[in-house]
Write a structure and sequence with these properties.
The structure is a single chain. The protein has 136 residues and is α+β, with helices and mostly antiparallel strands. The chain has a single domain, classed as Glutaredoxin (3-Layer(aba) Sandwich), CATH 3.40.30. The chain has a four-stranded mixed β-sheet, sandwiched between helices. The longest helix is centred in the C-terminal third of the chain and has 19 residues.
């Protein structure tokens, strides 16, 4: 996965409607094509999870690998926003909140995401113009 050294790689739950909508939201705002994407369920996603010693069966967090550094939960969300430019990068201000509080909110949404937003039977297929942004 040589691409991960040049671009941050975002791993997401490929069957989660909220996660898929979030990926599409990022794609629309990532004007410079910074991010690459893979579902947590994909071969590439599983390999990255294993590389960082993370659970390969429970998908409770978005995972961002950026310059060899791992970000999960609220840290991943804030790291992503910080790279999207203004106004989204202003979300960095939320880093002043205790990480435990930020992650508690993140975990609450993650626990309820299927109930609130639903799920798909299979991972989403990206639009043709976005296909090159997905690894694997």
């Amino acid at each position: 996965m040589a691409d991960q050294t040049q671009h941050p790689v975002l791993l997401f739950d490929g069957v989660c409607n909220l996660c898929n909508a979030s990926v599409q939201w990022i794609l629309l705002r990532d004007k410079h094509g910074i991010f690459r994407f893979a579902s947590l369920q994909s071969e590439q996603g599983q390999a990255l999870l294993q590389q960082f010693g993370l659970d390969t069966e429970t998908f409770n967090s978005v995972v961002l690998v950026d310059n060899g550094q791992l970000f999960t939960q609220s840290d991943a969300v804030l790291q992503i926003a910080s790279q999207l430019g203004l106004p989204w990068s202003a979300a960095r201000v939320f880093r002043i909140l205790p990480k435990g509080l930020r992650n508690a909110v993140y975990d609450w949404v993650a626990r309820n995401r299927y109930r609130w937003f639903g799920r798909q039977e299979q991972c989403m297929l990206p639009r043709p113009e976005w296909k090159g942004r997905f690894i694997g």
